[in-house]
Amino acid sequence: MVSFNRVALVALEIPGGDYLPSLGLLYIASVLEKNGLEVRIFDQGQKPDITDDILAFDPGVIGITSVTCSINKAFKIAKDVKRTSPNIKVVIGGAHVTAMPYETIENSFVDFVVKGEGEYPMLNLVKALQRGGEGIEKVESLFYKVDGGVKKNKEASYMDNATLTALPYPAFHLLDQHNIFQDVSHGIFTKGKRVLPLMTARGCPQTCTFCCRLMGFDLRERSVENVMEEISFNVEKYKIDELYFEDDDFTNNRSRALEILRAIRDARLGIYIKFANGLRADNVDEELLIAIKEAGGYWVGFGIESGSQKVLGIMKKKLDLNVAKKNVALAKSLGLYVGANCIVGYPGETREDMKESIRFFKDLNLDSCAIVSLVPFPKTALHGLCKKKGFLTKYADNYDNYFFKIFNPKIMVLNGEVSESEIRRFIKVFYIQFYMHPKRVFRAAKFMIKKLLRKPRQTFRSAKSSSYPLTPKTRNMTGQSNSKDVSIETYTTAV
């Protein structure tokens, strides 16, 4: 007989070499454990073939969290499990599912779908299953099959500040302690040996058309005291020496951000801080950047997205590039390493816009810049526009392609202005010109050597996933002749 006292939670492998534990899954695990359930986490990023391990655990419920590019992996695990043990209940949640709940529940191997924040819907679902299904219609944010159709329960409101603060800490103890600290990172620029992610708030009030906005528009915040208690707990229990902030918009509430940073500084915990998830370049100033530095911050990432003011307007990203440029320079003057993100190929973006954008990023004194082709995530305003205008390419039909692949990306959006091959060439040339600058080569090499000494396994994983394949076409971009391609010299003057 299936026991609904045991719950298996599955973290899916995401393309790329760097590894960060899924905070959403870990919060669900901690809530389930707090309520007396036996929970085990199966991490596909650590072991690709986990089906046999899941079945050996003999759970009554399997919970899988999925983003768009991993949803097919979720369906495969559900299929493999259900074919062996059809009585196990499969629940899928996460960013993709929140955007596409009806499409997900239509999969024959999926029993339930949870939309939005999953901690308490998952707990209430398991409790209902323990009662033989009694009260399942009252489980908020739940989708399930009934009489050949789909039943949608009332959607839960997002957690308020008090509820978010009351959540138990993420269940890091359920992860393989050796592997997590060997692998966890975000890029080569890492100082700590033992890195953990941290969420202090959920939600984002911005209106960018390309964003999924899983956690809603309203910013909901944990108390500063609660955040500091978690940091101190993790430093003591796991001996962490670096924090990776995962907030969607950490600096939106400036006074609270300052309070947290100064509390970390005053606690003298001896930790590093990294904001690679991206800060708004117009939400920082000298006081805030100094506070980041004094708290142990060494790296800030800015989500600039485009170097064209026109394109930013199309994106509905309300960012003044002059302010962004000023704050990048300010961060550099304080001794912070600075990275930025850039998206190319947006609907309405012309060749001249792309050239303008790339010139902007090349002129900034950045240590790192990720320039990627546009990904039209489902149910975003961007996806709706592209579908309506017929801009989606064949690659948009396969969810496996829905991630920001840096090298040789599959171009999913064409607007009639810039061709697929041109977008790829823009990206290739930018990376060559940007990263071949002597000072960036030196900085990257310095960090890579230090990281190799601290984390050899993780370093080789990152290098493998990020390596630039020198195919014949790529070699041409370094100046070798090929009449079918544009040489780097041509683009040097163009961008």
Describe the structure.
The chain is 41% helix and 16% strand. The chain has 495 residues and is an alpha/beta fold. It has 2 domains: 6-145, Rossmann fold; 176-489, tm_1862 like domain (pyruvate-formate lyase- activating enzyme, Alpha-Beta Horseshoe). The strands form 3 sheets. The protein has a 7-stranded mixed β-sheet with strand order 2-1-3-4-5-6-7, with helices on both faces. Strands 8-11-12-13-14-15 form a 6-stranded parallel β-sheet. Strands 9-10 form a two-stranded antiparallel ribbon. Helix 1 (23-34) packs across helix 6 (119-130) and helix 17 crosses helix 18 (456-466). The radius of gyration is 23 Å and the shape is globular. The N and C termini lie far apart (65 Å).
